[in-house]
Automatic annotation (TrEMBL):
DNA repair among keywords: no
Keywords: Oxidoreductase
Residue ranges that the Swiss-Prot or TrEMBL entry lists as coiled coil: none
Keyword Lipid biosynthesis assigned: no
Record protein name field: NAD-P-binding protein
Origin: domain of life: Eukaryota
Transmembrane intervals: none
Family as reported in the entry's similarity comment: Belongs to the short-chain dehydrogenases/reductases (SDR) family.
InterPro entries in the cross-refs: NAD(P)-bd_dom_sf, SDR_fam
One Gene Ontology molecular-function label: oxidoreductase activity
């Protein structure tokens, strides 16, 4: 079967249409699905074809708005909201227990949620919020619902876990592994926290694919520069303006190629459903194509990936086995 060639301007809907048969019958869980965001766009286009779309978020009211918006557009959509606060290990455990009580297996998990890029903020567990939301919470959640993910595997299908990272991971230094469990607020900057969290996601995709030995295919990706709800938050504006990402007026800077939300969500769709990726678990995608050459050495080093995995297991108090 031949599939279209995707480009930087391909939309999530175009990818969903191309892979409609791959999405049919699948149960997909997406984190971070507030409206005006990438996760919501993924949920919206997947809902037209999938058996079940589980949308998650820490704000129950926003989750309800997302559910209503999708059902209004796709009345036949099977949407199941799940309250999930990735910044709290206890909340992650509670949500995972709920998922494990579902009758269905989970074919695809898309880790799209992220914390606001802003001043240092400690979580209830004492971790740095960006690292907790993008790495520690998703790691624990994936570990706890692994039986549901593994149950989706068949002789002809390998379940997938997708991490929405960023090309900006290249702009920072290697992760200080000691800071994963013991963050240093004095050396923290908003973007250093972001760079490290995004590098951790790429490393986790590599190591998850390796350790699962063909039982789970994990991928990471950069959606590109997209103006979404998260980078429009007031607490992140000052850092965004200082970095030249936003203009002094708070508008997207012309220094970057900005994608629309549908364009930004396209690469996630490819990572989640493109059957051509089945043979290359652990790869990184950017602008709708595989782009391993765009990963910084510190985010692709196999030794670092293994060390991060072991340290994360210790921090969250769970050993991941398959």
């Amino acid at each position: 079967m031949s599939f279209p060639t995707f480009t930087i301007s391909t939309t999530a809907e175009e990818v969903a249409t191309a892979f409609a048969k791959e999405i049919q019958g699948k149960n997909v869980l997406i984190t971070g699905t507030s409206m005006n965001g990438l996760g919501f766009e993924n949920a919206r286009v997947i809902a037209r074809h999938a058996n079940l779309v589980i949308i998650t978020g820490y704000n129950t009211e926003r989750l309800k708005l997302s559910e209503e918006a999708i059902k209004k557009e796709v009345p036949s959509a099977n949407i199941r909201p799940l309250t999930l606060d990735l910044s709290s290990l206890a909340a992650v455990r509670k949500a995972a227990a709920e998922v494990n009580a579902y009758p269905e297996p989970i074919h695809v998990v898309i880790h799209n949620a992220a914390a606001t890029i802003g001043p240092f903020k400690a979580t209830v567990d004492g971790f740095e919020s960006q690292m907790a939301t993008a790495h520690l919470g998703p790691f624990l959640f994936t570990k706890l619902i692994a039986p549901k993910i593994l149950a989706a595997g068949t002789a002809s299908y390998t379940p997938r876990v997708v991490f929405v990272s960023s090309s900006a991971h290249r702009m920072g230094p290697a992760i200080d592994l000691e800071s994963i469990g013991k963050p240093n607020s004095t050396t923290y900057t908003a973007f250093l926290g972001y760079f490290h969290a995004k590098a951790a996601q790429i490393l986790t995709a590599i190591e998850l694919s390796k350790r699962s030995q063909g039982k789970i295919n994990a991928y990471s990706l950069s959606p590109g520069a997209v103006s979404t709800n998260i980078n429009q938050k007031e607490e992140s504006k000052a850092d965004m303006i200082a970095a030249g990402i936003l203009t002094p007026e708070g508008l997207p800077s012309s220094k970057f190629h900005w994608k629309t939300i549908p364009e930004g969500a396209a690469t996630t769709m490819i990572a989640a459903f493109d059957p051509r990726l089945a043979a290359t678990p652990g790869v990184y995608l950017q602008d709708a194509v595989v782009a391993n050459d765009q990963v910084a050495p510190h985010a692709s080093d196999l030794d670092t990936a293994a060390k991060l995995w072991t340290i994360t297991e210790t921090v969250v108090g769970e050993t991941f086995s398959f």
